Every structure is written in C-alpha cells, then in structure tokens.
UniProtKB/TrEMBL annotation:
Record's protein name: Pirin family protein
Domain of life the protein comes from: Bacteria
Domain Pirin C-terminal: 193-292
A Pfam family of this chain: Pirin_C
UniProt cross-references to PANTHER family, sorted A to Z: PIRIN (PTHR13903:SF8), PIRIN-RELATED (PTHR13903)
Length: 321
C-alpha cells in the first residue's frame, strides 16, 4: 500500500484546530493517481480541504477494474514508517509480502493489517492467476507517538465481527462499532466498518458523538445522513452525532471511517509519517542505503526508489492549510 507519486508534496496534519465539532456534510474532492504498472486509484485523503479523520490519514479507492487480461496491481517493495496500513477488498485478491517474511493472499472482506512501527517494507501484487475484477480501498492509520517506534507486525484476519440493524449489515474492520470489536490491533480510539445496505433498507447506526466520521462509498448509491453518494465519494461528517441515518434504493455499500480527533501534529511525506523534517530525511536515507527497513524476498522486480525531498524543510502543522 503505497504512495507512488514521483513528486510527493509534504502533508502537514494532526491537531484539533480544524476538527468540525458539529455535524456537517463536506464532500471531499478526489484525484486520480497511478498505482504501480496498471492500477489507477482515486485519492480522497489527504485532500486540500482535510488532512485526517480521527487517526485515518490516507484513503485510496480503486475499481471495480476489469483486469482479466491485465497484470492487475503490481507495487514493488517500498518502505513505511509511523503508520498502519489497512488492505480491504470487495473483489479480487492481493498478495502481500513484507520484510518480516510474511506471505499472505488477502481476499474480499478479509483484513490485512500491517503495523510499520519504526520500519517495514512490503510489496503488493495481484496473483498471476487472479479474478476478473479488482475493487477495494487502501487506507493508512497514523500511529501515536507512544507506539510509532514499536516493532513492525503483520496481521491477517479472515473472520470479523458484524453489526446488523434493519437491513444494515456492518463488518467491523478496525476498532469498535456498537460494542462489536475488530480483532485487529488499534492504537487509538478508532472505527473502520464496511457497511452494506440492501435495496430498500432504512435505519440508524449508533455512533460515538466524540468521534469525527466520514463515509467512503464503495458501490451503489447509499444515502448517508440524507446525502446520496456516488461510488468513490468521501463525505466528511464532523462530530456530534449519536446515530447515523442510512437508507438505500439499490444494493449499496460504504466504509464508515472515524475516531477521536488526532491531537499530535504530523509530517507525512511519501510513505513515511513522522514529526520532523530530519526524521523524514533520515528515513529516506535509510531506505536508499538499505538500512533499517529490511528486504522483501520473492518479489520479481527491483524495489522502489525514494523521490527527492522538497527543497524546503518539512514542518508539522495543523489539519488544514
């Protein structure tokens, strides 16, 4: 799960200054970004309007793409620091390899959770024999200072808890929702849930008033708090709700992302989350010299080279420009 931008802009995020303490409807813009050899993703977070949603700091949505005659996702080994990656699929498979020696195929509605901690490297690819469609989301979670230097780990959870309410079926991917807790390791109060609505479904999902939330539409046209969302849309909802009204005229699904506003100020550049320019620069140097991040074995290709750092120092600031 990578940012493959050859000229990545530094993203300055964190802090509570720009958290919307009341319920809002803020549709965040997206941009198309190439990912690997043949996949294009819709990058929804960070955006010019908003940098984080709770501890969620990066959101890409891709597909559904017909890859029957294509290689599909092919992302060479690359590093991560200071974050968790969440791999979530609706269609297709992704083969994960990392510098811990992990080798795991992640399938639809299974959680692939990688905690980079101080340093890890991994690759992602569609298996040689793969399904026709590829559709999913790739997300990052910022690690708080107390845990960002932890040892790296990889988790795969094929069975996840579900919450059901009047035609609404929510799979709890990370954190907690309505007393159901994901087995995935979380380091901040957070929730990530895949919510499915059958055609004609209408109901309310209980949520935490102190969390900020957003909805990422995966398929169909779910109506979230009265706002109808096309696939690939990310609607920021702010804080202050105790329940979220939902309905759908057609079979639909969306990801509910939320958590307590992230207090710490961060610097995010390329595939690193840190606290200062020097920290990011050292991580880049360590990757390029083969230090610290380890080696991903078994991938057929060279690792990604890190882009050049911007000419001005990176500084941690607030959540919006």
């Amino acid at each position: 799960m990578s940012n493959l931008d050859l000229k990545p802009s530094p993203t300055l995020c964190g802090g509570r200054e720009d958290v919307t303490a009341r319920p809002v409807h803020e549709l965040l813009p997206s941009k198309n970004v190439p990912l690997g050899e043949s996949t294009v993703v819709r990058r929804l977070l960070p955006s010019i309007r908003r940098r984080m949603i709770g501890a969620w700091c990066f959101v890409d949505h891709y597909g559904p793409d017909d890859i029957a005659d294509e290689p599909g996702m092919q992302v060479a080994p690359h590093p991560h620091m200071g974050l968790q990656t969440v791999s979530w699929l609706h269609d297709g498979e992704v083969l994960h390899r990392d510098s811990l020696g992990s080798l795991q195929t992640v399938r639809p509605k299974e959680l692939g959770l990688m905690t980079s901690g101080r340093a890890i490297a991994h690759s992602e690819e569609s298996p040689r024999e793969h399904a026709r469609l590829l559709h999913g989301a790739q997300l990052w979670v910022a690690l708080p200072d107390a845990h960002r230097h932890t040892e790296p780990t990889w988790e795969h959870h094929a069975e996840l808890p579900r919450v059901t309410h009047h035609g609404i079926d929510a799979t709890v991917v990370l954190g907690e929702l309505d007393s159901a807790a994901s087995p995935g390791t979380a380091f901040t109060p957070i929730v990530g849930a895949d919510v499915t609505l059958a055609a004609g479904a209408s109901g309310r999902l209980p949520i935490e008033p102190d969390f900020e939330y957003a909805a990422l539409t995966m398929s169909g046209e779910a109506e979230v708090d009265g706002v109808r969302l096309a696939p690939g849309s990310l609607l920021y909802l702010g804080c202050g709700r105790r329940e979220l009204p939902l309905r759908a005229d057609v079979d639909s699904s969306f990801m509910l992302l939320g958590g307590e506003p992230f207090e710490e100020h961060l610097v995010m550049w390329w595939n690193f989350v840190g606290r200062s320019h020097d920290e990011i620069a050292q991580a880049r140097e360590d990757w390029m010299t083969g230090e610290r991040f380890g080696e991903v074995r078994g991938y057929d290709g060279a690792p990604l080279a890190a882009p050049a750092l911007p000419p001005v120092p990176l500084k941690p600031r607030g959540r919006a420009r």
